[in-house]
Amino acid sequence: MEDTFQDSASEDGGFDLRQEIARSAFADMCHDWERNQKYDRALQLTIARLHAAGHQAHVLDIGTGSGLLSMMAIRAGADSVVACEAFRPMADCAERIIAANGMQDRIRLVKKRSTKVTVGPGQDMERRANVLVTELFDTELIGEGALGTYRHALQHLLTEDVLTIPHQATVYAQVVECPLALSWQQLKTLSNADGDILLRVPPEVATCRGSSAVFDIQLSQLPAGSFNVLTDPVPVFKFAWSKHQELINDRCEQSVCHARTAGFPQAVFMWWDLTMDCEGDVLLSCAPYWAHPEHEALKKKHSDNGSKRRLPEGNYIPWRDHWMQAVYFLPPLKIPLQRGQQFVLQSYHDEFSLWFGVGEQSVKDPLTAPHCTCGWHIAQSRSRIGQLNDSLRNKRYLNYFERVFSSDSVVLVLSEGSLLGLAAARMGVKQVLLYEPNAISRRCMEAFVEHNSVVNVRFLPSADALEPEQAVTITHVFAEPHFPSAILPWDNLHYGDLLKNLRPLLPANVTVIPASGTLYALPVEFVDLYKINAPLGSCEGFDLTLMDQLIDQHSTFADSPVEAQPLWEYPSFPLAGTTRLIEINFVQDFEQSKLERGELFVSEAERLNGIAIWIDWHLDGSHSPKTTISSGPLVPVEESSDEPTRWNTNWRQGVHLLRKTPNRKRTIPWSVKFNPVLSNVYFRFDEEEQ
Question: Which InterPro entries match (predicted)?
Fold first, then answer.
């Protein structure tokens, strides 16, 4: 195998455009068979009803993407179809797809935003449309500007009696107690193994409502027992897409609820469904499995089809990654709800966002949209906050600190936002030097220092701020490591680069923690995740291979062969044991390039559709589990299994998805290269047969 490594850091001026095409959700949506079939059925019903009433069906498709919905409309008997698409590369591709399916003379493609489309003889549209079919939604339903787009279309492009597909959307909210979700939002007190408090959370951090950015998540994959449902799903908003006067930006709804069980109302789980046609015959639900109207029927169908493999409970319902569910955190209450207790769920939305509150009674003063006031939710990701709250992870670090630190220790911390580094200052060391180049992160850490009266800490706004006379006193260099710029876990190898540059200033016998990092790989069968990279071919009877070619062409230039994904949200089955790829040593030889080669041996080659990759950080040279911090599986994987792998919920892992399936090779050659100049790791997996 030739060691040619794809570098996603391309110098090509068109890189951003190519990446946008490669990572667009067009193919993901087309893999959503339920979405496709229910849009198709709604078009058939709507057009047939118009024809039965003696009316023609003139269809407008806003944001046509591949042209799929427009072609469905023609097949359903539409008298005319106008499709608009503003993203020019996709519009050009749709034009070719429509022609390849023989519909170029029946679909008028307008390469504009719908707000720029003109109506009248000789214009973009000859007449106003009486059927609108579109998919303008995201996980938050309105986050992509659906309200404004619908209002404009209703006012300028559509007839007064227009039939919209979908006809209506309903937003559901379910109040829950979920300590796992809360651990991604709210920092906890940090204590040692004896229960002694090392760091208390400043009040302004504890009461901060966090970021307003939507927290989209595959709710169906939350671990069993990780949340306590306090209410049934509550319909809080309805959007009638054909009613201009009802599509307003700012609304507040107050719903009287009764607690199903006792608990703290910590969060709201949100999802929505679409009533696809005006008669309500076709329903598309984005609910998690426990609230999905078709869960039991689909589970029975899976069993009746004779499938031998048991799926995770959340994977019997249709899978989609473009519309997930969302978590919204509630302002904290100090008193739990009691079973049967009445309370009020307050639901709000503006033009683009939703938010929620709870109270004992209806409120006159509306709750404003949340925004971070403490800085932590700006400086750190939700998964990073989860890491900071991870008790097992913290215990391993703190136990190790107790073994290696003393009252004479001077500790240099080369991580950003490291509460563990700050905790070392409370464990009796002489001094801690905190590298904090980001001003927001530094202010966050300063608040902890002030609130906890930590005196033996000095901040370094840059590596250059370390003075030589201070450097020679350092006994330990510690990193978690973590840097906010990291996307993949091994992007934190930036720690080694910082350490390399500071080495000439440090004592020769300085202790380096962690001492090394090891990357591992696991060949897997993803239940669904592979679809985001899988070719479409034919979709609901239409040839979409031209879109496959477009995405494949731009992926070659723009996408790294390994991308970041939170694998706990995407179940997979291991097809072999874990394979060690490469170890990178921070104590010595970090400056040297490294190349490792090997082979993955797969038990059932045809099931292989992805390779999971992660890094373990070894605090010392022992490689003991007690001194290893892993971003990978919670339980070591030693062989293939019909049980899904359990992944750490506070990390993203790396994924290499096979472009072509089914795979035919039982042995997959691989090579991994480490470039110390860029602190970068490059991967090559040769899964395709020659």
Answer: Arg_MeTrfase, MeTrfase_PRMT7, PRMT_dom, SAM-dependent_MTases_sf
- Measured CA distances, 101 to 62, 72, 94, 105, 423 (Å): 20, 11, 11, 11, 64
- Residue 101: closest CA among 540, 660, 523: 540
CATH of domain 169-376: 2.70.160.11
Report the catalytic residues: 135, 144
The answer to pTM > 0.85 is yes
Residue the block writes with tokens 């939710």:
377
What kind and span of H or E run contains 673?
strand 667-675
Cα–Cα distance, 384 to 390 (Å, whole number)? 10
Q: Are 284 and 273 spatial neighbours (Cβ–Cβ below 8 Å)?
A: yes
Reported confidence tier of residue 11, pLDDT bands at 50, 70, 90: very low
Bridge partners (DSSP) of residue 240 are: 168
Are 230 and 210 in contact by the 8 Å Cβ rule? The answer is no
Q: Using one digit for the tens of pLDDT, what is the confidence trace for 325-383?
A: 999 999 877 789 999 999 999 999 999 999 999 988 777 788 999 999 999 999 999 99
**Dmax of the chain from CA atoms?**
90
Please, which residues bridge with residue 235 across strands?
A: 172
Fold that domain 516-685 belongs to in CATH? Hnrnp arginine n-methyltransferase1 (2.70.160)
Confidence of residue 558 (pLDDT cuts 50, 70, 90): very low
Q: How many CA atoms lie within 13 A of 208 on its CB side?
A: 22
- CB atoms under 10 Å from CB of 233, counted, come to 18
Distances (CA, A) of 401 to 24, 193, 471: 45, 11, 20
* Non-local CB neighbours of 80 within 8 Å, separated by 6+ positions: 56, 58, 59, 106, 108, 126
Torsion angle, CA of 118/124/127/128, rounded to 10 degrees? -50
Same fold across 13-135 and 169-376: no
In terms of Cα–Cα distance, which of 377, 389, 438, 384 is closest to 212? 377
- Quick check: 287 and 271 in contact, CB under 8 A? yes
**Homologous superfamily, domain 13-135:** Vaccinia Virus protein VP39 (3.40.50.150)
Give the residue from 231, 320, 353 showing the smallest Cα distance to 29: 320
Q: In whole angstroms, what is the distance from residue 127 CA to residue 350 CA?
A: 32
**Helix 545-558 vs helix 88-100: angle between axes, to the nearest 10 degrees?**
150
Of 81, 77, 247, which Cα lies nearest the Cα of 149?
Answer: 247
| CATH placement of domain 379-513 | 3.40.50.150
**Unique residue bearing structure tokens 């792998």:** 645
Among 652, 649, 687, which Cα is nearest to 671's?
687
* Residues 682, 476: Cα–Cα separation, whole Å: 30
Residue 77, token pair as written in the block: 């008997």
Q: At 123, which amino acid appears?
A: Q
For the chain, domain boundaries: 13-135, 169-376, 379-513, 516-685
Phi, psi values for residue 261, rounded to 5°: -150, 170
